[in-house]
Amino acid sequence: MNRIGAGIAVLATSMLALLTGMLFMGQPPMAGWPLEQQRTDRWTGRRQTATMSFTTADSIELAGELYLAGSRGTVLVLHGLGTHAGVAASTAEAILASSGFSVLAFDLRGNGGSSGPRGRVDRHERYREDIGAIVRGIKRRNPSGPILLAGVRQGGGIGIDYMGSPENTASRSQVQGVLLLDPILTLDSLILAGTDDNAQVEWHRSRLRAVAALDALGLHAFDRLAIGYQKLRLHDGPAVRGLRYGAVRALLPPEPVARVRAYPGPVLLVTRSRLADLPSTDKHELVVSAGNVLEDPATWKAVERWTAQFSADAELPPPISPTIPLRVRDTMRGAPRR
């Protein structure tokens, strides 16, 4: 028995040494470039909009832009990997035009105009906590207005994670429906998909596999290592943003199909390929796009049909004329200030 135990110990030590070695093997070329030192991505709306900001419990300021419509409902748009709400502007405008709902597009922490370290989060739960804070802020402003959640590409994974997390029960109950546009739900798909704005991304594949294996063993000390490098367009020369493993994993919910199936509210899923075990039901509508989901007219016809039915079911009040409020800053700790 002692020999068997010793053999197992030697094997485990060897595997751990191999995995640790993989963390520093095969560095991609961009890993040697200067890392981003400041916020570089900015965006401005192209329509009649109002800027908004929300401060989270850990003092991260989230920047958002509200696209106004003659409806008292709001669609909250979640963008994808390494981008910001400006990249999702055309999607936000298409949702606005097809749904008649106001649209709030905001930058996830560490992206765009939002503060926070670039390309990383300290805990996987941070994104869904931020969504909960914004949902509560919206309800404070407009208590009777319904909220829909729209996840675009990798933002779809964040939306599913939020809707399936038990600790967000209170704010989650204030979201009446989920719209998933071309959701990226697996690590392999995420690596192939890249970013929404087609920025070049190089993946440290050996490190990625090693950190994933260590994570599975309950060892999370290496989650803060960069597993991807995103090329940035800067005025003073090339630089990269290091995409940390923890932040990337936060985009990918566990058992996404099961979470979607378990969600009791209305779901519209528009995807390029039919997902296994996720058929259309009375509550969940599946639309398979023939091409680029975000450029396919059938996508926006489906959004129009889905939101129209939702509006009828929710008995929304008659539309009101859109207005532009003064610049808004919501500290999330007191009454809204105008």
Give an overview of the whole structure.
This protein is of the alpha/beta class. It has one domain: 3-Layer(aba) Sandwich (Rossmann fold). The chain has 10 helices and 11 strands. It has helices at 2-22, 89-99, 126-141, 154-163, 169-172, 187-193, 205-216, 245-249, 256-262, 297-314, and strands at 49-55, 61-67, 74-78, 102-106, 147-152, 175-181, 201-203, 226-232, 239-244, 267-271, 284-288. The strands form 2 sheets. Strands 1-2-4-3-5-6-10-11 form an 8-stranded mixed beta sheet, sandwiched between helices. Strands 7-8-9 form a 3-stranded antiparallel beta sheet. Helix 1 packs antiparallel against helix 7, helix 2 crosses helix 10 and helix 3 (126-141) packs across helix 4.
CATH topology: Rossmann fold
Q: Given the helix and strand composition, which structural class is it?
A: alpha/beta
CATH top level label: Alpha Beta
Shape: globular
From the alpha-carbon coordinates, what is the Rg to the nearest angstrom? 21 Å
**Structure summary, number of beta strands:** 11
Please give the count of helices: 10
Q: Determine the mean pLDDT.
A: 78
Helix content: 25-40%
Instruction: Find the CATH superfamily.
Output: Alpha/Beta hydrolase fold, catalytic domain
* Second-tier CATH architecture: 3-Layer(aba) Sandwich
Specify the biggest β-sheet.
8 strands, mixed
Please report the distance between the alpha carbons of the first and last residues: 73 Å
Please mark out the parts with pLDDT under 50 across 5 or more consecutive residues, or reply none. Answer: 316-338
> What series of H and E elements makes up the topology?
HEEEHEHEHHEHEHEEHHEEH
Q: What is the number of domains?
A: 1
Tell me the fraction of residues in β-strands, as a range. Answer: 15-25%
